[in-house]
Amino acid sequence: MHHPNLSAIDARSPRTISDADIVLFEHNSSPTLIRTKPQTSYVDSKRAISALRFFISHSTLNHHLLQTMRSASNIPKTMRAVLARDYGDIDSVLSVVDNQIVPRLTDLPASKRKTHMVVKVLAVALAPGDVRVLSGLTRELQGPPSLPYVPGGDVCGIVAELDETETYLHIGDRVAVRFTDAPRGALGEYALVSKAVADKIDNDLNSTSEEGAALASASPATVLAQRIEPGERVLVMGAGGGVGAHLCQLLKKERKASLVVGVSRSPEHLLAEPISCDQVLNYTQQDIFGLVEFQKIPFDVIIDLSGHSYARLQDCVAQNHPLIVKPGSQGGRFLTMVAPIGATFEAHSIWQVLNIFLFPTLWLSFWSRIWTRRKLPIYTFAFSLPSTRDCMTKTLQLVAERKLKAVIDPQGPFPFTTEGVRKAFRCQESRHAQGKVVIRVADE
Predict the structure, then answer these.
(1) How far apart are CA 19 and CA 441, in angstroms?
(2) ∠69-166-201 over CA atoms, to 5°?
């Protein structure tokens, strides 16, 4: 019986390896020796040798099973986590607590264990949905099954537990993951997340975990950018926010727009790298829709990430004022990820959601394509994300190609303390963050 690495075990071992010892061979590591009781029987020795040969022939399976077992044994039973005791005021309901139960795959129905994983959380990026859920304005539709609950959805972490059938992701991989059903469960030392919208962060990217969380949360910008054609002139409303700060980069560096104009109340940072807008406008000091410069040479596309802009265009048409964007008949388009009434809304039933999102957006989409296409740009509600990891893969690929860089609000990353988490949520609630609001949960 011989293996090139057995001598290493012999050197560390108090006795030599016998035929009755079982050795598990792992990829890129020394073999694992399992001692058995001293054997004298020839039959028992033959059985041991057969077991050894079996384990050698199934070394890949052994490696994966050992990873899984070791990971499971390393996960603690309790953790520190952010707990929202109720809906309402941020300072009243949010706090960091100890002894929160660590979520595990066994908490899920058997049918969902293959689609989820447990990650050791390194950083979490907030999104508008985090604040909306905490407010209780959509509790019947987006709220947790019960209170208290752990908020947060977009995360960067290290894979800690996987179903044994998983082949793409592995224990120890650093991953970026966005939330799927609702933004909750991530703001703890461990989180149960969906594998379907997760992808590995290559070490060659040299991205911090805070940047990884920001990129996961800003991945909708990758999907939205694909709607822009090279050479188009684009106006971005809300360019300084979490999605806008990443979208502007892609419009210039990946989609090759000829002009990108960013609108924000603090627009100066939009001119600098990595956002790199060609021009910026301060909506608190200028009437964006009345600028003669753009009435003479209108935009091809307006992307509205803040809300209410299409109503302003309708007012301009009603008052016979020239528009700053081309009409649909000339290829003009209006893209938004926000409901016509704005990003802040209250809805407690499916009917209310239909009245806020579906009916108005369908009507505007239909009306702008049929009756007003010679006057107004074609309206598209563009908030549609795939339920696969394609979007995350593309986002990380763009980082590798140096076409995208994470933008984090300069107040952060916020610490994983009660006061730090509350400050982060208040920053997100203000809707004036400059980039993504990120909370650092643990060091790598």
Answers:
(1) 48
(2) 95
Q: Is the pLDDT of residue 6 over 60?
A: no
Q: For 328-349, write each residue's pLDDT tens digit.
A: 999 999 999 887 766 667 778 8
Side-chain half-sphere of 119: how many Cα atoms within 13 Å?
Answer: 34
Tell me the whole-structure pTM to 2 decimals. Answer: 0.81
Contacts of 141-146 with CB under 8 Å at 24 or more apart are: 141/347, 141/348, 141/349, 141/350, 141/353, 142/182, 142/183, 143/87, 143/182, 144/182, 144/184
Q: Which residue has the tokens 């727009």?
A: 257
Residue 198, C-beta contacts closer than 8 angstroms, at least 6 positions apart:
117, 169, 175, 176, 177, 389, 392
pLDDT exceeds 80 at position 69: no
The residue whose two tokens read 């990430």 is 305
Please write the tens of the pLDDT for every residue from 113-125.
Answer: 999 999 999 999 9
The residue with greater pLDDT, 308 or 88, is 88
- Rounded CA gap, 121 and 245, in Å? 24
Radius of gyration of the chain (CA): 27
361 contacts 381 by C-beta, under 8 angstroms: yes
Q: How far apart are CA 260 and CA 239, in angstroms?
A: 10
Q: Are 135 and 173 in contact (CB under 8 A)?
A: no
- Greatest pairwise CA separation for the chain in angstroms: 101
Structure tokens at 69: 């077992």
pLDDT digits (tens, 9 = 90+) for 303-320: 999 888 999 999 999 999
